[in-house]
Amino acid sequence: MNKTAGKYIKTKYFLYIFAPFFILTFIFFMVIRNSSIKNEIDQIKISEKISLESVHEIVLNDLSSVTSDILYLSQNISLYKNLEKSSLDFNETAEEYLNFIKYKKIYDQIRYIDNSGLEKIRVNYDAGNPIIVEKSELQNKEDRYYFKNSIKLNKGEIFMSYFDLNVEDKKIELPYKPVLRFATPVFDKSGKKQGIVIVNYLGKNIINDIRKNSDLNNSNSYSMINSSSYYLLHQDKNKEWGFMFDEKKSINMINDKPKLWEEIKKNQMGQLFLDNSLFTYIKINPTENEYILFTKTQDNIQSKTSQEYRWVILSTIPKEHFIKIKSEINQRLLWKLCTISIFIAFVSSLYSKSKYSEFLGLEMIKEKNSELTEKNREIEIQKETLKKMNSYLEEKNEQLFLHSTVDPLTKTYSRRYFSELFSKELTKSKRHPLPLCCIIFDIDHFKKINDNYGHLAGDYILQAISKVIHGKIRNEDIFGRYGGDEFLIALPETDLKAGVIVAEKIRKTISEETFIFSETSIKVTLSMGISAVDDSVDTTEAVINNSDSALYVAKRKGRNRVEIYHRS
Questions:
Q1: Same domain for 39 and 49?
Q2: Structurally, how many domains does the chain consist of?
Q3: Distances (CA, A) of 54 to 212, 292, 530
Q4: pLDDT band at residue 523 using 50, 70 and 90 as cut-offs
Q5: Which segments within 419-485 are labelled E, that is strand?
Q6: I want to staple 547 with a disulfide (CB 3.0 to 4.6 A). Which of 213, 217, 440, 560 is the partner?
Q7: Which contiguous run of DSSP H or E holds residue 147?
C-alpha cells in the first residue's frame, strides 16, 4: 500500500471521531457564549435603571431642600418684626440672611423685594465671602420676569425659573455659573402681601451630584438635557448651554441624535440600544414637589396641573464597552474550547491509528495466511487499546454530561436539569398520589453584597450557602439554581407542613451563620416562598410560580422569612 492511500485511510478514521465531537463542542460553547453575553448585558441594563432612579431621587431631594429653605426665609421671625416697624429697617434680617447663605453654601444670592419691586435686602455669596449689599446699590426689579411671576402667587406657592447661566450687566458671568431662581411671596402677620423673597440656587450642586454618580460608574457617562433638547451637562463641555449662545444654538440633541430624542419624548423612563450603544434616560419634573406650583419664566404662568418634564438625565454606555465585554467572554471561553479540541484531536488520532493498524492487519492476514495467529494476537492487542480509549471517551462524556446538569459555581443542579427531575417527581406525585412541595428562595439584598464586597464575595456567598443547604436536605430532595441568587428545592413525598419546617430550618441556619470572605464577616438572610402540589396545578411551571408568589409576599413583608402560597 502506498503512502497516499495510508494517509487517506488515517484521515478518514480521524474525521469520524474528531468532526462530530468538535462540532457538538463548538455548538455547546457558542450557546454558553451567547448566554453569558446576554446575562452580562441584562445585568448592565438593570444596573443603569437603578442608578438613574437614584439620581432622580437625589435631584428631587435637592429641590425639596431649596423649597424648604425659601419658605423658611419668607416666614422668618426677624422679617416679620422688620415689617411691623414703621422705619422698615431690615438690618437684623439681612444679618440672618448673611449667616444663612454663609453656612448653607448652596445659594449665590438671597433677596427680599417689596411690592413695588424695590430690593430691600440683597446678600451675595461672593465665592465664599458673603456680603450684605449696600442700600445705595440696591435696584428696582419690577420689570424682571421673576418678580412679575412670583408677586402674583399665593402664600406657600413657589416660582422656579429655567436652569440657565447667571447673567450680570447683560453679560454671561465668567466662569459660568449655572443657577435656578426660586421665589415666593412674603405676607405680614395680618396676611397682607408685602413683597417676595428670591434665592439664586447654585445649579452646580445638582450637576455635581450627577457627576458623582457618573464617577461611580466608570463605564458610562451622564448628560443632563432640558426640555428643548439643549445640554446642561455633557461629557464634551463645548456642547453645554447652547441655548445661551447664538453661535451654539444648533448644538442640541435634536441635531445630534434625533432618533434618540424622539424616543425620549415618548416615555417617563426608558432604555434603548442605538448605534450599538446603550442609552438609559429618566425625566425630572420639578412640579412633583408639593410647593413648586409654577414653572414658566415668562409672564404667562403655568400651573402644577401641567406634567411636562423639565429635564432629562441620560446615561450612555458606549459600544466600546460592549465590545470589551464580548471580547473578554470570547477569550475566557476560547482557551477552554482549544483545550477540549486538543483532547478530542488526541483521542481521534489514537482512534485513527488504531483503525489503520486494524486495517493493515486484515490486509496482512489476506496476504500471509501463515502469519494468521500472530496477526490475530496483534489485532486483539489493538482491540484492547481501542476498548480502553472507548472507556476513556465514555468517562469524558459522563464528565460533559455532569457539566451540563450541574451549576459549576454552586454544585447544585442547573435550571434545565432541575426542571427535568422536578417534572418526573410531579408526574409521580400525580399518579400515586404522593405529597410534593417546592421551595423557592433568594438572598436578601444580594446586589449590596456584590457592590460592597465585590463579585468574588458574591460568588463565595452563593457557594457557601449552597454547601450549607446541601447538609440540611435529604439525598432524595432536588436542589437547583434557578438563576442569579435564586434557588429551588423540591421535596418529594413531603406535605406542606413538613416542607415549612424544612424551609424554616434552612432560613434560620443561614441567618445565624457568619460567612467569612477575605477576613470580612458577611451576614446573609433568605426570603423563601413555599407551595404544595394539589389538584389545581398540572405543570412544574405552575408550582414554581405559586412558590414565587409566596416569595414575593416574603419580600414585601420585610424579608428573612418563609411565606406559604395560599390560593386566592
A1: yes
A2: 3
A3: 12, 21, 33
A4: very high
A5: 436-443, 478-483
A6: 440
A7: helix 145-150
